[in-house]
Write a structure and sequence with these properties.
This protein is mostly helical and 328 residues long. Helix content is 56%, strand content 4%. The chain is built from 17 helices and four strands. α9 crosses α10.
Amino acid sequence: MKNHWYRIITLALITGLIPLSHAFSQDSDELVAAASLVDEEVLPNYHYEYIPDFTYDQIDRRIKAMDHEMAFELNDRIFSFIQYFTVRNRDYTKMVLARKELFFPMFDETMAKHEMPLEIKYLSIIESGLDPQIRSRVGAMGLWQFMPATGGMYGMKINSDVDDRMDPELSTDAAAKYLKSLYRMFGDWEVAMAAYNCGPGNVRKAIRRSGGKKTFWGIYNYLPKETRSYVPQVQAMLYILNHLDEHNFHPEDPTYVVEYEKIRFDRALSLDKLAELTNLCVADLKTLNPAIKDKSLPESNKSMALRIPKSKMSYIQQNLAWLSDSLN
């Protein structure tokens, strides 16, 4: 009981319901009265790790009020993933929030260019956690987890020195084209996302086994197990990232992309050497050019355009001749 009163008095001091001087006064009646007021009012929890409670009906109302092009309705499967990402695995959501400003503006631009719902960008969260260099156990790479064969179909170079699947812009453009082709094939964005995960062949098989149904939830029971979880996770993230305050998510240190411009040196080069000559940070060059393996651009890819921090572009252009000679 004693500890309970210490806690109440401390909360009262923090929130200003009683002044500091009164905590040390002899007027115990006044102190008890103030502390009782605190106890009755049920103070808000300001702790960083506080996880707000929520109900199915609350989430349902929020989703129905959302303005989004790719509409979806709440069900038990989606609700379970909302619980998972807001309660049991908050660290994953926090990681995504720290990275999203690196890629979301570019995602929005690409989706708009291809006249696709902007909400498609949330698929990349489930694919890669917004890590452009992540590799799956079966060999898929990048933000959109392209397999080598599919990446090659969309013009991405994949060899021992360069892997365009790790290039955020190239892989996002390829993903948009692929998803749009799947949408034309099936006429439904949820089904297109399912096909992106398990392949159009498995989706066609699910449609046949369902008796010809054409919606994701209509063919749900006939899809591979992983795909049944895949689309609801995308929709859960779509909800969560549009209702961060309601779930006490407050990203403290978001990472923003370094402004850059592109330039071709038309020669083999080392990122270490380029950084040395231009007083650039090697880590920045590597972050801006993740498709380059081992920090070296080989002769076979010498025409590849490098991303350079915008602040250094004027210097590089003015000294391009001697820089090219020194890089040799």
